Amino acid sequence: MLLLMISATRYGIALAAERLSDDAPPAATVAAAAVAAPEPQVTLQLREVPVPDVAAEAYVVADVSTGRVFASRNADTDLPIASISKLMTALVASDAIPTDSLITISAADRAQTEGTPGRLPSGTTYRAGDLLFPLLMESNNSVGFALARTHSRFVEKMNERAATLGMTATFVEPTGLSAQNRASARDLFTLLRHLHGEHPELLAITRTAAHPIATAKGRRYDVPNFNVFVNDSAFQGGKTGYTDDANQTMAALFSINGRTIAIIVLGTPDRKADIAALRDWMTRSLPDR
Fold first, then answer.
1. pLDDT tens per residue, range 190-200
2. CATH number (domain holding residue 121)
3. Structural domain containing residue 67
4. Quick one: CA dihedral 253, 256, 260, 261, positive or negative?
5. For the segment 121-135, what is each residue's pLDDT rounded down to a tens digit?
6. Is residue 42 part of a domain?
7. Are residues 134 and 210 in the same domain?
8. Which pairs with CB-CB distance under 8 Å and at least 24 residues apart come from 35-38?
């Protein structure tokens, strides 16, 4: 006879089985424990739909709630992630920099961006909390450097946070312009799960279609969102990226058949097509709740 001991974890349910010994507790005690124990979950069975052959060098399709990976390719291979790095930049900035701190975009911040500085002029000053909008929505590189400049150990803290989350990712700067900003698709699934559970306000920024911010002197700038699925009602947040070394990348969350599903693609010539194909596969494979 088996006594099922069910241990609930934050993102799933672990089951353990133990054979009763001769000196087991009285039957009444065992019966009471059995009544109190929750029913084990039935393993979700996907419909038999072939996984599409997408172009991405690596990808993961997984359930944020349970942690179950439904499909993957090279999930543990570290690859350049480009501007997906800014999800970690935003996470560290929101923890390490007071929201009301004033930060000025400098000429040096813009000069480091290899021709992609973003729309905010040098010499303009903003609240740190407001700078998270251009960082995540228009992938503003000069904002990434400006935020990192306000803390002497900013990039070190990015790596510390990654290690704390159990990621093997490496960051050498805050924007993703460097090919040395590397992570696996599984790492990025871990990061998305953390943001979904602990920092939903950051994911909310990534799915905001447009947002105004103002300088300390009152000049207004309207920040657009360059995320390719921003107008999709099922999009729950995420980040795109592109460099010559990384090719196109994206880490995104979607509501699919009543579940929150992460789809991460790295090293692809067409992230939108890859994610659309994997999302369609998940929609057809996943039973409705």
1. 999 999 999 99
2. 3.40.710.10
3. 58-285
4. negative
5. 999 999 999 999 999
6. no
7. yes
8. 37/4, 37/5, 37/6, 38/6, 38/8
